[in-house]
Design a protein that fits this description.
Blueprint (H helix, E strand, L loop, with lengths): L2 H12 L21 H4 L2 E5 L2 E8 L2 E6 L3 E6 L2 E6 L17 E4 L2 E7 L4 E14 L4 E15 L8 E13 L5 E14 L4 E3 L2 E16 L2 H4 L1 H5 L4 E16 L2 E13 L2 E7 L5
Antiparallel strand pairs: 1-2, 2-5, 3-4, 4-7, 5-6, 6-8, 7-8, 8-9, 9-10, 10-11, 11-13, 12-13, 13-14, 14-15, 15-16
């Protein structure tokens, strides 16, 4: 796929995207473009360069039943160098792709109990930086729990996710690894409304995020877990019928706020925020 065609879905999303909740100033360097698929769309800073990233999630059913599902993951992430969101009011969109990552993998979901759903995945991918023609290999694995509890009216959901990701430069052999833990609760407000010929429901969420360097959890688990963390608060609208834009299907639209590294950070998302 050449760049002009690939930019079509990116331009649809770029109007609404802001920044990622990750903290680029802290070690490890979770802002590297190789990790874009796991941190979400936004603007990242790496080695003095800014990059806007748009993720296009792709997946295909392999097998499914009432209590389990197996998917082939094929997420695509596009990065655009030296692009800032203050260019959006003027309608200045990037005209070339700076980086691209493809992280195919296997994802498995199973219903452990009536209220508890488990998810796990393994990705082995590839990333390319067009500015210096460098390439990286990417490896990531993770596991999640999704626990439904409380009132049917509000349908609260407690989500916890743990994953590890790393990359290795094919040219230089340099590498970076980190692990991340997110735990949060999302809940409805007990009411909905109709717009755009579909029913919508507002939902609130609050989540804590931790990022760990390689070996940090193994060396000092308690200290790492109770070290520096980030609180994220957000609101979203869930659509009864997804919004369809070319190859993009949007199940919800939401935004969140967090404060980390001395900066106010905003995020706009189009799928489950946790």
């Amino acid at each position: 796929m050449d760049a002009p065609i690939a930019l079509k879905p990116a331009r649809i999303l770029a109007i609404l995207l802001l920044s990622s909740p990750c903290v680029a100033q802290q070690a490890p360097d979770v802002s590297h473009y190789a990790f874009a698929n796991y941190l979400g769309s936004g603007i990242y800073s790496s080695a003095g360069d800014s990059a806007a990233v748009v993720n296009i999630p792709l997946s295909f059913d392999i097998e499914s039943s009432s209590d389990h599902s197996l998917f082939l993951r094929m997420p695509l992430s596009l990065g655009f160098f030296n692009y800032n969101w203050d260019e959006l009011p003027e309608g200045d969109f990037p005209d070339s792709v700076g980086t691209v990552t493809v992280t195919p993998g296997i994802e498995y979901h199973w219903q452990a109990s009536p209220n508890l759903k488990m998810e796990t995945y393994l990705d082995i991918g590839f990333g390319h930086n067009f500015s210096d023609s460098s390439n990286v290999g990417i490896l990531s694995a993770g596991i999640s729990t999704l626990y439904s509890f409380g009132s049917e009216t509000y349908q609260p959901l407690w989500v916890s996710r743990f994953y590890s990701a790393g990359y290795r430069s094919i040219q230089s052999g340099s590498e970076e690894h980190y692990s991340a833990l997110t735990s949060g609760v999302e809940s409805g407000l007990g009411w909905g409304f109709s717009a755009w010929e579909r029913q919508m429901e507002p939902r609130l969420f609050a989540a804590m995020h931790w990022y760990f360097g390689r070996g940090e959890l193994a060396d000092e688990f308690v200290g790492a877990l109770f070290g520096e963390s980030t609180l994220e608060l957000g609101l979203s609208l869930v659509f009864e019928k997804p919004l369809e834009f070319e190859v993009i299907s949007i199940e919800r639209v939401g935004f969140s706020y967090s404060h980390a590294g001395g900066e106010d950070l905003w995020r706009v998302f189009f799928s489950h925020p946790l």
